[in-house]
Amino acid sequence: MKLLSIEWLKIRRYRTFWILSALFLVFLPLWNYEIANGVVQMGGGGINILSQAYTFPEVWSNLGWWGSIFILFLAILIITLTCNEFTFKTNRQNVIDGWSRMDFFQSKVLLVLTFSLITTLFVFLLGVIFGLSKSGSATGMFNHLEALGYFFILSLNYLGAALFMALWIRKSGLTISLYLLYAMIIEYAAASIINHSTGTKIGNLLPLQASDELLPFPLMKMAQSMIGKTEGFSDYTYVIASLVWIAIYYFAARSMMLKRDL
User: Fold this and answer.
1) Residue 255 in contact with residue 106, Cβ under 8 Å?
2) What is the rounded CA–CA span in Å between residue 70 and residue 27?
3) Which of 14, 45, 69, 249 could form a disulfide with 160 if both were Cys (CB 3.0 to 4.6 A apart)?
């Protein structure tokens, strides 16, 4: 709590923190509100399939999938906050003031954990609101709640990867560019190439893709379940793979902090 309170003192007056947080907290519900109310239509006969994804229990996995896109705002925030420590030498000032290297590192890890918890709670609240609004009752509300756990793991994965890259590169502009390039293009392309060349789904176990597989696009998942077709590994396998990657980020970043100059 002491480390988190100090982190809060650092960021509470930082405009970028409030802007990027607002982008996540405002655009995630706004975007889903527009889709739930038919701005984007898919289906015929007066039935919008996209709106059906906001009833219980489909709402959990649906919001989790959209959350996996908007979580990039918070990943950029983690990168910015961490790289600023090196740019403005506040990390050295922390050590001069009595922190150890591990105190500095653990404060950033706790920040990632806190952001992941808050975003998961936020998605839960959105799910309750959308679900009750579209379902008309709480029937099925507590079914498939594991999707919230998957979203928490996904958040840890995305934000943990952002922290690792920030501690490794230490330049915010370069780190953000490489992170977005990897998250949005490189890894997807690499996974597709690996899957095609091996004839398996082993590419789905790449760092961020492993968590993405836990929360596929709801309509795709619905279509696969209707025709009895499943692809890739089990959710359990993707959970283990994601947790392994999160552990790798942690210990690799920890090793860097102990060995590299501040």
Assistant:
1) no
2) 8
3) 249
Which residue from 216, 184, 228, 204 is spatially nearest to 53, judged by alpha carbons?
216
Other CB atoms within 10 Å distance of the CB of residue 180: 16
State the pLDDT at residue 96: 86
Token code pair at residue 103? 């105190």
Nearest alpha-carbon partner for 114 in 235, 212, 8: 8
Alpha helices in the chain (DSSP H): 2-11, 15-36, 49-52, 58-87, 90-96, 101-135, 146-169, 172-181, 187-198, 207-212, 218-226, 235-259
Asked if pLDDT for residue 170 goes beyond 60, the answer is yes
Identify the residue whose tokens are 């934000």.
159
* DSSP letter string, 38-86: TSS---STT--HHHHTTSTTHHHHHHHHHHHHHHHHHHHHHHHHHHHHH
pLDDT, residue 128, reads 96
- Residue pair 228/167 in contact (Cβ under 8 Å)? The answer is no
State pTM to two decimals.
Answer: 0.94
| Distance between CA atoms of residues 17 and 186, nearest Å | 27
pLDDT digits (tens, 9 = 90+) for 15-54: 999 999 999 999 999 999 988 887 665 555 455 667 778 9
